[in-house]
Write a structure and sequence with these properties.
Number of strands: 20
Shape: elongated
CATH superfamily of one domain: Biosynthetic peptidoglycan transglycosylase-like
Strand content: 5-15%
Mean pLDDT: 84
CATH topology of one domain: Penicillin binding protein transpeptidase fold
Strand order of the largest sheet: 2-1-3-13-14
Structural class: alpha+beta
Length: 628
């Protein structure tokens, strides 16, 4: 019975097409085919910074039409092989292809194969929207037949190759060749022609500017099809398959490329490629040109020393967030966008390390422990199933009795583990979730030392709570989007939520200032006069180095590490890797007059950092300030 239903469905599809064709052919004189010769590329969309000035745009690469006779044969063959084997034989549609596609899709219970010819694709591009309705498909097939009646195969192929999208706002084969390889279409090789044709399956996922490895894999599939159809010899196949993709870099003069790519992906999903590149949108971003420029300069300055002293493939990311609004003022997703488009500020998930400890000690404060409470820094052993966990401090030393304020300021691992065991995993995990960390969380004592994977954006959002009096604001990079008529068609719904009290935030933030005071003694020439709170973090074997800090107006988080998460070696720590970038950004900004405004109900007291007893700063060199 199921076979008969499937057969009936195929018959209905073909019959519908035939009836539709008769109707539309009879009315063919009212269809305007001038779009085949004239195509309006529309207006670019503008990216505005936080001051309303343009800093980038999404627009079509300059389209330079190429005549069919000027296109190399292997370019034509590559597109025929991958998109439409019977292009030079069919009448605009492939009946065999339609039947085969329907049967294959029925067999799999979902759409796994299409049957669009090159002519249909051109018709869809010029005359129809991207909706996947049955009626639209029938109309598309009928108009494809009419186009074939009015134009030659050469005209259709020429128009198709001059208008088709190659992703990243690049339309037309000439623009693609110039952007990817710095060549004209007449100069590209067989492997490059195959790469172009391979992009057609999904321009977003195979554009070599953003996904070079995926593009290369897809290229090799196209080369296999070309060999199968005898468009190329086995020798040409072998040479082309091993050829490097070698995309030409435009250099490092591109401004904020990682955040631009993030915005592009979001807007393409929201409004579609056509609207983004030709619809004349205005996109108000939160980006500060000044802070972004400083951040990129600092990354460039630090890259060469890190590459020489640590590892050639060391990389990292930075994100700067406005404390009160959550607006992202700067984002660097890696040292070199031309080399790697992976956005490490958003996509990389790495062990959090000691950057997690402010959450641990906030949970301790909520449980009734104050920062004058003392514990002993000493070797400990914790039984976990059949194994024993014995945390070590970074310097492999133990310093005896100290306050938990001093333990947080010096990032003492043993006291962090003791604190975790004292208050239990449940309140710590619950609080981490309130700080919008995604997890997963494993309720073992090692969680106290940051054994949890996070993104840099999560770290910035989490730490910003302590600078923002206990309120979490979601980091975001777009304020609003207006269409070409000036109507606001999208605006950010900023997420703000109090996750801890202002008193708790003030207590933790005061202690987070202590660690930065210690750093100030080591790097006096690099210091910034503003009030600031900070936390370092280092994971096992120095796989990741973190430095996150807030002034009263800006939270900036930085991480450094190898993309494959291998060790960066011995004697590698945040003050040598991530901190120079952080301080380099902040010392160029005018924050010196800003002060934190802690909850007025809190009282500042001085205690001895080892004993926890009240003392005087003037007479006790071991005095520290805490809030109670």
């Amino acid at each position: 019975m199921k076979i008969f239903r499937n057969f009936f469905f195929v018959v209905v599809v073909i019959s519908s097409f035939v009836l539709g064709a008769l109707f539309f052919v009879a009315r063919s004189k009212v269809i305007d085919f001038s779009a085949l010769e004239y195509y309006n590329p529309g207006s670019p969309s503008l990216l505005l910074d936080d001051a309303g000035n343009e800093w980038a745009r999404f627009e079509l690469d300059k389209r330079e039409p190429v005549a069919y006779e000027d296109m190399p044969k292997h370019v034509i063959n590559a597109f025929v092989a991958t998109e439409d084997w019977s292009f030079f034989k069919h009448v605009g549609i492939s009946v065999k292809g339609i039947i085969r596609s329907v049967l294959v899709n029925i067999y799999h219970g979902r759409r796994v194969q299409g049957a669009s010819t090159i002519t249909q694709q051109l018709v869809r591009l010029l005359f129809f929207n991207a909706s996947k309705t049955f009626v639209r498909k029938i109309k598309e097939q009928v108009v494809a037949v009419l186009v074939e009646r009015q134009f030659t195969k050469e005209q259709i192929m020429q128009t198709y190759l001059n208008h088709v999208c190659f992703g990243c706002g690049i339309y037309g084969v000439q623009a693609a060749c110039q952007r990817f390889w710095g060549k004209t279409v007449q100069e590209i090789t067989i492997d490059q022609a195959a790469a172009l044709a391979g992009i057609m399956k999904s321009p977003r996922n195979y554009c070599p500017l953003t996904y070079p490895l995926s593009c290369q894999k897809r290229r090799n599939i196209v080369l296999g099809l070309m060999k199968k159809l005898q468009f190329i010899t086995p020798q040409e196949y072998g040479l082309s398959r091993t050829a490097p993709l070698t995309i030409v870099s435009r250099g490092k003069n591109r401004f904020a490329p990682h955040i631009k790519e993030w915005i592009r992906q979001f807007l393409e999903d929201k409004f579609g490629k056509s609207i983004l590149y030709t619809g004349g949108l205005k996109i108000k971003t939160t980006l500060s040109k000044k802070i972004q420029t400083i951040a990129e300069d600092q990354f460039s300055k630090q890259y060469e020393p890190l590459k020489k002293s640590i590892a050639h493939d060391v990389d990292g990311a930075l994100i700067s967030v406005d404390v009160s609004s959550g607006e992202i003022k700067a984002l660097v997703g890696g040292f070199d966008f031309a080399r790697s488009q992976w956005n490490r500020a958003l996509q990389a998930r790495r062990q959090m390390g000691s950057v997690f400890k402010p959450i641990l000690y906030t949970a301790a404060v909520q449980s009734g422990i104050n920062f004058a409470h003392t514990e002993v820094d000493e070797p400990i052993e914790v039984k976990q199933g059949r194994s024993i966990w014995s945390p070590k401090n970074f310097n492999h030393q133990f310093n005896g009795k100290m306050t938990i304020a001093h333990a947080l300021a010096t990032s003492c691992n043993t006291i962090a583990a003791k604190t975790f065991l004292s208050i239990g995993a449940k309140p710590v995990v619950a609080l981490a979730k309130k700080f919008k960390l995604r997890g997963p969380f494993h309720p073992y004592p090692s969680l106290a030392l940051g054994c949890i994977d996070v993104s840099l954006k999560e770290v910035a959002g989490m730490f910003n709570v302590f600078a923002n009096n206990g309120v979490y604001v979601e980091p975001h990079c777009i304020s609003w989007v207006k269409n070409k008529w000036g109507t606001k068609i999208w605006k950010v719904q900023s997420q703000q939520e109090r996750v801890i009290s202002a008193q708790e935030s003030g207590q933790v933030a005061t202690v987070l200032q202590i660690g930065l005071h210690r750093v100030r003694k080591w790097f006096p020439q690099k210091w910034v006069d503003a009030q600031a709170i900070s936390k370092t973090g280092t994971t096992n074997d120095s796989r990741t180095c973190w430095f996150v800090g807030s002034t009263p107006t800006l939270t900036t988080a930085v991480y450094i590490g190898c993309d494959d998460n291998r060790s960066m070696g011995k004697n590698v720590y945040p003050l040598r890797t991530a901190f120079p970038i952080w301080i380099g950004v902040n010392r160029e900004l005018e924050f010196s007059q800003k002060k934190f405004s802690f909850d007025p109900t809190l009282q500042e007291v001085c205690v001895n950092k080892f004993t926890g007893k009240l003392t005087l700063k003037a007479t006790d060199k071991d005095a520290i300030s805490i809030m109670v």
